[in-house]
Design a protein that fits this description.
Number of strands: 3
Shape: extended
Structural class: mainly alpha
Number of helices: 16
C-alpha cells in the first residue's frame, strides 16, 4: 500500500518527504532534529501524525497537529532521507573555493661545455661554450660584463685619441717656427677659457671671480703671448703691460672691486700665457745646430736638411717624450702597486707611482740623449730628466688644486676620453720654463 505524504503548507514553506513506516521513531527523533538545526535548514515538526516537516527559521512555527503514534517511524525515515539528500547536494553557501593552480616553471638545462681537447681543436665549440656560460651567468654577470666592456671602450678611445694627439704634436714640434707658435697660441686660448671657467666655479664656495669681460680679455692676451714671443724674443714687456691693463680695468669696474679678482686674473695671465711661451723660446729660441745628432745627417734637404735639427728641437723632443714616459709609468705602477698617498691635493697619486714616474722619466731622458747625443754628459742627462719630472709633477698638482677648489673632476670636455685641454697639458706648463732655464744656465755651449 501507499505511504502517506505530507501536505504542502504555503505559509510555513514546509518540505515534505516520504518515510518508511517500519522505521522506529526513537532512532531519529532527537538525532535528526539536532542535525537539521546544525545544517541551518529548519526544525522537524509533526504533520498529521504521520510525517515530519522541515520548517524554515524565518516563519513562525505552526500549531502542533494531533499526534499519531503509528506513523512516527515513517516520519523518522523521511527525515533521514532528507538529511542524506542534503549531504549529497549541499547548498551553494557551503561550496568550497577552487584551489589555486600551481605556477608552471620551465627550467632550461644547458649542455655541459665540451672537453678542452675538442675546444682547442674546434674553435666553434669554444665559442659555443663561452656563449652558454654567459647565458647561464645571470643578470649580475651581465651587468659586470657591460661595465667591463664600457671601461674597455673608454680605454680604447683614450689610447686612440692619445696616439693621434702625440702624432700631431710631434709633427708640430718638428715643423717649428710659426706653426709651433700658432699651435701654442691655440692651446693658450683654450686653456685660458677653461681656467677662468674653473675660477667662476669657485664662486659656489665663496670665491670672487673676475667679471666676464676681464676673463675674455685675459684669454685673448694669453693667445697672443706665444706669437709675440716668437716675434720679439722676450715676454717681460708684454706681460707687464697686460697685467697693468687688467688691474686698471678691475679698478674701474662698477661695484666693489675685490683683491681675489686681481690675483686670479694676473695668475691666469701667468699660468696660461707667460709659462707656455717658454716652449716657444725652447723650440725656436735655441737655434744652435745639434752637430752630433746622427739623424740630422740623413734629414731631407726639402725639410730643412741638417740645419733643421737644432738644440731647441732635440731638447723639446726629449722633454715631451720624458713627460709622456713619466705620466705613463706613474699611472700604471701607481694603479698596480700604489699604497702610500702622496698628497691630499690629489688622493689618487701615490708615492710608489711618483717613484715609478721618476724612474721612467730619467731612463727615457738618458736613452734619448744617447740616441741624439745631446747632452753629451750622462750626469747632465740625468739632471735634465729629474728636472723634467719635478716640473711635470708640480704642474699636475697645481691643476689638481684649481679643480679641487672649483669642485670638478675635469677642467672641460674638449678632448674625448681625456677631459679638457688643461687635463692634458698640465704637466707641460712649468716644464718648458725649467728646461729652457736649465739649457741656458746649466749646460755650457747649450750642451753641444
Amino acid at each position: 500500500m501507499k505511504t502517506p505524504t505530507s501536505e504542502v503548507v504555503p505559509r510555513e514553506q514546509a518540505v515534505v518527504h516520504e518515510v518508511d513506516p517500519n522505521t522506529r521513531r526513537d532512532d531519529c527523533d532527537g538525532e535528526e532534529k539536532s542535525e537539521a538545526a546544525a545544517m541551518g535548514i529548519g526544525e522537524l515538526t509533526k504533520n498529521n501524525g504521520s510525517e515530519y516537516s522541515f520548517l524554515t527559521s524565518n516563519s513562525p512555527p505552526p500549531p502542533p497537529p494531533p499526534p499519531h503514534r503509528s506513523s512516527m517511524a515513517a516520519a523518522a525515515a523521511a527525515a533521514t532521507a532528507a538529511v542524506a539528500a542534503t549531504r549529497l547536494h549541499p547548498p551553494l553557501l557551503f561550496h568550497s573555493a577552487p584551489r589555486a593552480q600551481p605556477q608552471l616553471r620551465l627550467r632550461i638545462l644547458l649542455p655541459s661545455p665540451p672537453p678542452l681537447r675538442l675546444r682547442r681543436r674546434f674553435p666553434l665549440l669554444a665559442v659555443a661554450a663561452a656563449a652558454a656560460a654567459s647565458t647561464s651567468a645571470g643578470e649580475g654577470s651581465a651587468e659586470e660584463a657591460a661595465e667591463k666592456s664600457d671601461k674597455a671602450r673608454k680605454l680604447q678611445r683614450r689610447v686612440l685619441v692619445g696616439v693621434a694627439i702625440g702624432v700631431g704634436a710631434g709633427g708640430v714640434v718638428v715643423a717649428g717656427g710659426w706653426v709651433f707658435a700658432a699651435a701654442m697660441a691655440a692651446v693658450g686660448l683654450a686653456g685660458a677659457r677653461e681656467y677662468f671657467g674653473l675660477v667662476r666655479g669657485t664662486a659656489v664656495g665663496g670665491g670672487t671671480p673676475p667679471p666676464r669681460y676681464v676673463s675674455r680679455v685675459c684669454s685673448a692676451i694669453c693667445s697672443l703671448m706665444p706669437i709675440l714671443t716668437l716675434y720679439y724674443g722676450r715676454m717681460d714687456v708684454p706681460l707687464t703691460f697686460s697685467a697693468f691693463i687688467i688691474a686698471i680695468s678691475l679698478l674701474l669696474q662698477r661695484g666693489n672691486p675685490r683683491f681675489a679678482q686681481l690675483t686670479s686674473s694676473v695668475f691666469g695671465l701667468f699660468y696660461c700665457g707667460y709659462l707656455p711661451s717658454f716652449w716657444v723660446k725652447l723650440r725656436c729660441g735655441l737655434a744652435a745646430p745639434a752637430l752630433n745628432t746622427s739623424i740630422a745627417h740623413n734629414w731631407p734637404i726639402l725639410l730643412g736638411g741638417q740645419a733643421h735639427w737644432t738644440v731647441g728641437l732635440v731638447a723639446t723632443l726629449i722633454s715631451i717624450s720624458s713627460i709622456i714616459a713619466a705620466d705613463t709609468s706613474a699611472f700604471l705602477c701607481g694603479r698596480a702597486f700604489g699604497r702610500t698617498p702622496l698628497t691630499n691635493i690629489s688622493p689618487k697619486k701615490t708615492l710608489e707611482g711618483a717613484l715609478a714616474g721618476l724612474t721612467g722619466c730619467v731612463l727615457t731622458t738618458v736613452l734619448l740623449s744617447t740616441l741624439f747625443r745631446w747632452p753629451r754628459s750622462l750626469l747632465s742627462a740625468t739632471a735634465y730628466g729629474i728636472l723634467i719630472f719635478l716640473g711635470s709633477l708640480f704642474g699636475d698638482l697645481i691643476e689638481s688644486l684649481i679643480k679641487r677648489d672649483a669642485g670638478v673632476k675635469d677642467s672641460g670636455s674638449l678632448i674625448p676620453g681625456h677631459g679638457g685641454i688643461l687635463d692634458r697639458v698640465d704637466s707641460y706648463v712649468f716644464t718648458g720654463a725649467l728646461c729652457y732655464s736649465f739649457v741656458r744656465v746649466a749646460l755650457p755651449l747649450y750642451g753641444v
